[in-house]
Write a structure and sequence with these properties.
Structural class: alpha/beta
Largest sheet: 10 strands, mixed
Strand order of the largest sheet: 11-7-5-2-12-1-13-17-20-21
Strand content: 15-25%
């Protein structure tokens, strides 16, 4: 069996935007796949896939959707029902029939609400020039609130002051039990009232979230394990290892484990391959370190699907950084192979591990192949430009 015939965990080796969506789509199109399992992040993910002229930016749906592969949102995902419903409508507009029928959600997954989103945006706006680079989607606020059990007003938890009396964090399963959901949302609304008040009231949210629960399949128990035993899974990571909550460069990080560790926990020892995704040059969306940043690189490679965001900030680019690539691979406890995207880019350079001046990179595929096997090679944005190889590895098998 080749490297990609079994379960595959796809992780980004940069600051996000490496091309994970296109890689997941290519993997699902190349081999029979039971499901795409999302194992971190939430509605801030933006994984672009282009197939036969159809384009979609996958956020909560898995990037195997165009290939007809169902999505499972694991307990590690933060679920935002309003954004998910909007994404389902966009998928229908590009020809995906009944997208919600392709979706299952672990009931333990945390619920991102308008209270979290508005509080997140208020905090980021207040930081002014010291912004962290948040997407403004409530991700960090959702995680933070879930950590507040037993905390009291005035206490500092994860460098943020507790501004009220917290309660239990709402979950997807709560959406099917209005009395439980109402209690949790009432507490959430009171907690965040000093910071932000969204336009949706608790009564409206309870009704809308109940409709959401009726529209999707909510699972309990080890759904990921059941799926893994029934066929090949592709685990789709969000963001990149250099934004990881433990291995990134704080405070410019995400409140999420972006390395393969959540996927490995879901797989519970089952054999798998870890595929690390990287561009042929380095990019970053928003604030934070980018050691090889270059205005020339940014100008040379215009971005079709990424632009300056109100909260996230500007799109940035720089030369490939060998030291950061090695660091990202180490943060993942190793990867079995690489997926290299944007191989159609020309005039590339790489900054060596010792930090010396950038050198020309005339054959990027050969350079990456000297580091690790290249299992997926991507040229251009369309699935037609992706090649899935027969690479072999035994690191995680």
């Amino acid at each position: 069996m080749t490297l990609l015939d079994g379960h595959v965990v796809v992780v980004g080796l940069g600051f996000g935007d490496e091309g994970k969506g296109a890689v997941v789509d290519a993997l699902c199109a190349a081999r029979p796949t039971t499901a795409v399992v999302r194992f971190n992040g939430g509605a801030q993910a933006a994984h672009n896939v282009v197939v036969d002229g159809r384009h979609h930016t996958f956020s909560q749906f898995g990037a195997g959707t165009f290939a007809g592969v169902p999505t499972h949102l694991s307990r590690f995902v933060l679920v935002e029902p309003f954004a998910l419903a909007a994404e389902a409508r966009r998928l229908e507009a590009v020809g995906v029939r009944n997208p919600l029928s392709l979706l299952s959600v672990d009931g333990r997954a945390l619920l991102t609400t308008p209270f979290h989103i508005h509080a997140n945006r208020a905090r980021e706006a207040a930081r002014g020039a010291n912004r962290h680079g948040s997407c403004g989607m409530g991700i960090g606020e959702t995680v933070w609130y879930s950590l507040l059990a037993g905390a009291v007003p005035g206490e500092v938890v994860e460098n943020q002051e507790v501004i009220g009396t917290p309660g239990e964090a709402p979950t997807v399963a709560d959406c099917a039990t209005p009395s439980v959901l109402r209690r949790k949302l009432d507490t959430l609304a009171r907690f965040y009232a000093p910071l932000a008040t969204p336009p949706h009231g608790v009564d409206e949210l309870v009704a809308l979230y109940r409709d959401f629960a009726d529209a999707i399949r909510i699972t309990d128990g080890d759904e990921a394990g059941r799926l893994a035993d029934s066929g090949r899974l592709v685990f789709e990571g969000a963001q990149g290892a250099l934004l990881d909550q433990y291995h990134g460069f704080h405070p410019h990080t995400t409140w999420s484990t972006t390395t393969p560790h959540n996927a490995r926990e879901l797989l519970a020892g089952r054999p798998h391959a870890v595929l690390g995704v990287t561009r042929t040059y380095l990019t970053r969306h928003g604030a934070g370190p980018l050691p090889t940043e270059s205005a020339a690189v940014l100008a040379r490679f215009p971005e079709a699907h990424n632009e300056t965001g109100e909260f996230q900030g500007a799109w940035r680019a720089g030369h490939l950084d060998a030291a950061l690539l090695d660091y990202a691979i180490a943060a993942c406890d190793g990867v079995d192979a690489l997926a290299v995207t944007h191989l159609d880019a020309t005039g590339l350079k790489v900054v060596p591990e010792d930090g010396s001046a950038a050198v020309d990179l005339p054959d990027p595929l050969a350079w990456f192949g000297e580091q690790l096997p290249v299992a997926v090679a991507g040229y251009g944005p369309d699935r037609a430009g992706y090649r899935v190889t027969e690479a072999r590895s035994t690191i995680n098998a």
